[in-house]
Amino acid sequence: SSDLGLTRVDVFEGNRIVVSRRLEAENLLGETEFQETTTELESPVFGKITHLLLDAAGAVLMAATDSGYLLRWDITDLEEPTLTDRVQAVGGGRAVTAMRWLEGEFTVAVGDQTGAVSGWFPVAGGAGEAPRLTLVHHLSPSPAPITEIGRAHV
């Protein structure tokens, strides 16, 4: 919930991603009115979607696939949602098996079936270029597959 309202994301057969948003506003008579918007996102085929993350503001949606891709959309404006990034986060045909926002919801941690964990966040490009999702951390691998990434305690 935020100024964008309540946002819900559903994934259907064939990687169909549908985003719904409900915005509450008060009219001139002081009555509560609701505006609902629903849109289907452009979803390029990079494997089956295995994980979704939505930031608390309902503005950024991240998806991970069983072929190791990360997809990031700007869904601030549901009339014109934008796929801003698609990156191969995990190579060798491995699946993303865990994904979590780190503190501040700017960096996303990604784990795979071989025990590797990496951190990704948008890095500003050159003059006038939009930030691109970039690998910024690579942790020592675990001897077992990563099935969950816990909350960092600082």
What does this structure look like?
The chain is mainly β and 154 residues long. The chain has no helices and eleven strands. It has strands spanning 6-12, 16-26, 32-40, 49-54, 60-65, 69-74, 82-88, 96-101, 108-112, 117-123, 132-139. The chain has a four-stranded antiparallel β-sheet, with no helix packed on it. Strands 8-9-10-11 form a four-stranded antiparallel β-sheet, with no helix packed on it. It starts with 5 loop residues before the first strand and ends in a 15-residue tail after the last strand. The model has no long low-confidence stretch (mean pLDDT 88).
Average residue-wise pLDDT: 88
| Low-confidence blocks of residues | none
Distance between the termini: 25 Å
Alpha carbon gyration radius: 17 Å
Sheet with most strands: strand arrangement: 4-5-6-7
How are the SSEs placed, and which strands pair?
Layout: E1 6-12, E2 16-26, E3 32-40, E4 49-54, E5 60-65, E6 69-74, E7 82-88, E8 96-101, E9 108-112, E10 117-123, E11 132-139
Antiparallel strand pairs: 1-2, 2-3, 4-5, 5-6, 6-7, 8-9, 9-10, 10-11
Provide the descriptors you would attach to this structure in a database record.
154 residues; 0% helix; four-stranded antiparallel beta sheet; mainly beta
Structure summarized in a few sentences:
This protein has 154 residues and is mainly β. The chain has strands spanning 6-12, 16-26, 32-40, 49-54, 60-65, 69-74, 82-88, 96-101, 108-112, 117-123, 132-139.
